[in-house]
C-alpha cells in the first residue's frame, strides 16, 4: 500500500491528540513516512476535534480527500465527515454512543467495566485499529507500553480487548527502512534555534506558536536555555532586546495579534541594530479570527511592519527539516547583520507532525561576528563598508556600550543633525545589501517536479508538500522561495526561466506572495487562494491546478 490515511475524532478532551500521535508512531515503526494534521476548536472541552494520520512510502506533508480507516468516538465524526469515506473505508466506532455501519465496539461499556476513566476509550480504539491493519499484537503492545506511562497495565488490558473485538481489513507491510524521529514543525524549529546557539526564549502563549514555549520549557535544562513567560507581548520583545544588548541570543514566539503589539519593539531593533528572532505563527484574522486554524495572511504585515525603514530577514519553512535549518539560519544571520529576523509559520507546519530525517539537514552557514578589537573608543554604531558595526557588550572593562532608539551618532549619542541622520540611515540600509548577497549564496529557492515544464506553480510555507503532491501527474514545476525578505530574485528568475505560465497557490484572500513577486518584476498569470482556515486536500488542489494549466 503506497498510502494509508486514518481519521480519529471525538470531543475536545477525548485525548485525540495523543491517540493520533500514537498511531503515527505505530506506522512510523513499520518504516512509513507520516504526516499528522490536527483540527480542533478554541473550546477547552466539548467541541468536535479530529486528527488525520497519513502514512506513505514517499515523504508527505498534506492529507487526501478520503481516509481508509475512520475511528469514531462520537456521532459528529460520521455526521460531519461523510465526504471522507470511500467505498472501502472501514468505520470503527463506539457502539454505545454512535450509530453506523462498519465495526461497532462497545468502548464506553468496556472501559466502565474495567474501572477506567472515559478517556481510555481511545486506548481500546487503538487496539482495534492495530487489528484492523493486520499488525501483530506484540508490536503494538511494545509501542503502547513505551508511550502510555500512566496506568499502563489498565491501558494495555483495554487495548487488548479492543484488539480482540476487531477483524483484519488491511494488511500493512513493513517497509525496508528504519523508523525516523517524529517531530512537530514547532519542535524542529525550537531545536534548530538551539543548535544555532540560542540562549533564551521569551514568549507569551499564542496559538500556533505556544508549543515552542512548552517544548523549550520542558527541555530548558538539557538545552541550557532560559525560558521565560512574561506578562505581555510588549514585555516579551523588550526583554528579548535586553538579552541581545547583553550579548545573549534570544528568540520570541507569537501570532498576528501579539506581533501587532511587538511592532514598536521591532522598530526599536531596527534603529538600535539589535538582533532578535521572531517566530510569527500565522492564523486567520483580522483580530481574534480563527485562533486554532491556519492561514498565510501575515507575509505583507511582516514585510512592512514597524515605522521607518530598516532591513529585516524573513524566512518561511515548509516542513520539519526546513523549520530546523532555517530557524538556525535566521538566528545566525540576525546576529551577523545585527537586525531582526522573522520566521513565518502557520498551523499546518507548526502543529503538523512529520518524520524528521537528520541526514537532510545541511550545515548552517558559517558565522563570523565582527567583534570590537578593544583599542580606542568603542563606537557601537561605527560606520563600515558593510554597515555592520563591531560588537561589544556591557559589563566588560574599558568600554561603554550605548544603544539608542533615537537617531544617533556612531557612539550612540542622540543626534538630529541632517548629515549624520542621512549617514546613519544609509549605514543601516547597507546591511540589507550585504544580506541579499548572503542569501543568494544559500539555497533560498527550491524547485520540484519537471524543471523544464512550461507551467510553474509557486507556493510558500505549508504549501510545499501539498503543491508537490498535487502536481505529480501534471506537467508542472513547483517553485518555492524559502526566503521572502530580502527576496532572492536571482534564484527566483533562474527557477522560473523558460516558463510560459506562473500560478500562485496561497492560503490567503489577497494573493500576498503574488503581490510581492510583482514588486520584483515577476508577472503572475493566475492565483489559487484558500482562506477558510483549513488546508486543501491533494485532490482539490490537483483539480484546480489542472483546470488552470494551459
Automatic annotation (TrEMBL):
Keyword Transmembrane helix: no
UniProt keyword annotation of Oxidoreductase present: yes
Transmembrane segments: none
Keyword vocabulary terms for this entry: Oxidoreductase, Pyruvate
UniProt-listed Pfam families: POR (PF01558), POR_N (PF01855)
Signal sequence extent: none
Domain Pyruvate flavodoxin/ferredoxin oxidoreductase pyrimidine binding: 194-419
GO BP terms, alphabetized: response to oxidative stress
Domain Pyruvate/ketoisovalerate oxidoreductase catalytic positions: 12-163
Molecular function GO labels: oxidoreductase activity, acting on the aldehyde or oxo group of donors
Identification of the protein by name: Pyruvate ferredoxin oxidoreductase
Amino acid at each position: 500500500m503506497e498510502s494509508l490515511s486514518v481519521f480519529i475524532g471525538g470531543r475536545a478532551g477525548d485525548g485525540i491528540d495523543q491517540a493520533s500521535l500514537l498511531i503515527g508512531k505505530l506506522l512510523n515503526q513499520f518504516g512509513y513516512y507520516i504526516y499528522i494534521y490536527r483540527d480542533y476548536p478554541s473550546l477547552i472541552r466539548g467541541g468536535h476535534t479530529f486528527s488525520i494520520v497519513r502514512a506513505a512510502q514517499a515523504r508527505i506533508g498534506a492529507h487526501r480527500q478520503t481516509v481508509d480507516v475512520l475511528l469514531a468516538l462520537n456521532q459528529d465524526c460520521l455526521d460531519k465527515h461523510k465526504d471522507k469515506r470511500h467505498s472501502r473505508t472501514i468505520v470503527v466506532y463506539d457502539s454505545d454512543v454512535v450509530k453506523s455501519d462498519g465495526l461497532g465496539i462497545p468502548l464506553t461499556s468496556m472501559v466502565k467495566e474495567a474501572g477506567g476513566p472515559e478517556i481510555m476509550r481511545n486506548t481500546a480504539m487503538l487496539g482495534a485499529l492495530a487489528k484492523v491493519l493486520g499488525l501483530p499484537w506484540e508490536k503494538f503492545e511494545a509501542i503502547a507500553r513505551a508511550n502510555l506511562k500512566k496506568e499502563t497495565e489498565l491501558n494495555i488490558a483495554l487495548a487488548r480487548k479492543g484488539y480482540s473485538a476487531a477483524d483484519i481489513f488491511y494488511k500493512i507491510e513493513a517497509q525496508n527502512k528504519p523508523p525516523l524521529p517524529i517531530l512537530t514543525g514547532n519542535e524542529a524549529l525550537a531545536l534548530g534555534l538551539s543548535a544555532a546557539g540560542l540562549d533564551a526564549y521569551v514568549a507569551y502563549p499564542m496559538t500556533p506558536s505556544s508549543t515552542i514555549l512548552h517544548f523549550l520549557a520542558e527541555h530548558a535544562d538539557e538545552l541550557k536555555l532560559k525560558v521565560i513567560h512574561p506578562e505581555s507581548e510588549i514585555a516579551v520583545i523588550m526583554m528579548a532586546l535586553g538579552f541581545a544588548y547583553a550579548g545573549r541570543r534570544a528568540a520570541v514566539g507569537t501570532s498576528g495579534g501579539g506581533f501587532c503589539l511587538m511592532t514598536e519593539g521591532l522598530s526599536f531593533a531596527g534603529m538600535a541594530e539589535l538582533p532578535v528572532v521572531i517566530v510569527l505563527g500565522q492564523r486567520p484574522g483580522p483580530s481574534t479570527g480563527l485562533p486554532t486554524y491556519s492561514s498565510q495572511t501575515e507575509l505583507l504585515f511582516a514585510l512592512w511592519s514597524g515605522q521607518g525603514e530598516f532591513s529585516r530577514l524573513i524566512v518561511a519553512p515548509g516542513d520539519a527539516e526546513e523549520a530546523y535549518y532555517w530557524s538556525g539560519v535566521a538566528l545566525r544571520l540576525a546576529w551577523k547583520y545585527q537586525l531582526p529576523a522573522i520566521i513565518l509559520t502557520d498551523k499546518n507546519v507548526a502543529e503538523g507532525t512529520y518524520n524528521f530525517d537528520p541526514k537532510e539537514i545541511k550545515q548552517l552557514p558559517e558565522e563570523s561576528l565582527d567583534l570590537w578589537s578593544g583599542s580606542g573608543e568603542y563606537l557601537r554604531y561605527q560606520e563600515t563598508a558593510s554597515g555592520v558595526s563591531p560588537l561589544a557588550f556591557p559589563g566588560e572593562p574599558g568600554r561603554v556600550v550605548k544603544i539608542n532608539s533615537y537617531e544617533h551618532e556612531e557612539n550612540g549619542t542622540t543626534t538630529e543633525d541632517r548629515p549624520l541622520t542621512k549617514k546613519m540611515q544609509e549605514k543601516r540600509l547597507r546591511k540589507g545589501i550585504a544580506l541579499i548577497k548572503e542569501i543568494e549564496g544559500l539555497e533560498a529557492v527550491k524547485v520540484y517536479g519537471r524543471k523544464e515544464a512550461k507551467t510553474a506553480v509557486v507556493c510558500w510555507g505549508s504549501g510545499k508538500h501539498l503543491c508537490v503532491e498535487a502536481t505529480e501527474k501534471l506537467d508542472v514545476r513547483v517553485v518555492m522561495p524559502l526566503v521572502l525578505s530580502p527576496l532572492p530574485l536571482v534564484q527566483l528568475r533562474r527557477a522560473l526561466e523558460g516558463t510560459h505560465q506562473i500560478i500562485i497557490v496561497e492560503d490567503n484572500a489577497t494573493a500576498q506572495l503574488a503581490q510581492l513577486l510583482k514588486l520584483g518584476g515577476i508577472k503572475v498569470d493566475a492565483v489559487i487562494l484558500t482562506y477558510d482556515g483549513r488546508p486543501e486536500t491533494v485532490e482539490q488542489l490537483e483539480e484546480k491546478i489542472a483546470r488552470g494549466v494551459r
